């Protein structure tokens, strides 16, 4: 590209450069961009946030409570509480993952439906992957607790899985 196509290190097509440095975002352009965003939002049939998304939020918050219960039980030497807390946490994580799969299946849009679809599936997909990895991490800690590898003073792997 020629030097004329850049302004302060930004390509001429860059929205930041156009609006901030080049002064190309006049009132009429700003109004058009706002209308474009509004039309984009109106044309997508988004998910109802009071259905699966709300349920999954409740499940995630509950799993935080159950894993905290398991951790405190381990510190207090309550083996039964540790096992119950971890089992409940893993069950909640599996339910969350299943509901996210159902949400994907029932979504009225796809990943190829523009910015909304690709952003939705990218963000929720990476979060879902995070939950799956965390579930595996906690499951490993569960088997280590079953095998008496972790104690009230020696459980770094379990703490790491909680922090993850």
UniProtKB/TrEMBL annotation:
It comes from the Eukaryota. GO terms for biological process: mitochondrial electron transport, cytochrome c to oxygen. The chain crosses the membrane at residues 52-70, 82-100, 120-143. It is a multi-pass membrane protein. Residues 1-164 form the Heme-copper oxidase subunit III family profile domain. It is found in: Membrane. Component of the cytochrome c oxidase (complex IV, CIV), a multisubunit enzyme composed of a catalytic core of 3 subunits and several supernumerary subunits. The complex exists as a monomer or a dimer and forms supercomplexes (SCs) in the inner mitochondrial membrane with ubiquinol-cytochrome c oxidoreductase (cytochrome b-c1 complex, complex III, CIII). Belongs to the cytochrome c oxidase subunit 3 family. Component of the cytochrome c oxidase, the last enzyme in the mitochondrial electron transport chain which drives oxidative phosphorylation. The respiratory chain contains 3 multisubunit complexes succinate dehydrogenase (complex II, CII), ubiquinol-cytochrome c oxidoreductase (cytochrome b-c1 complex, complex III, CIII) and cytochrome c oxidase (complex IV, CIV), that cooperate to transfer electrons derived from NADH and succinate to molecular oxygen, creating an electrochemical gradient over the inner membrane that drives transmembrane transport and the ATP synthase. This is Cytochrome c oxidase subunit 3. It comes from Corymbia citriodora subsp. variegata.
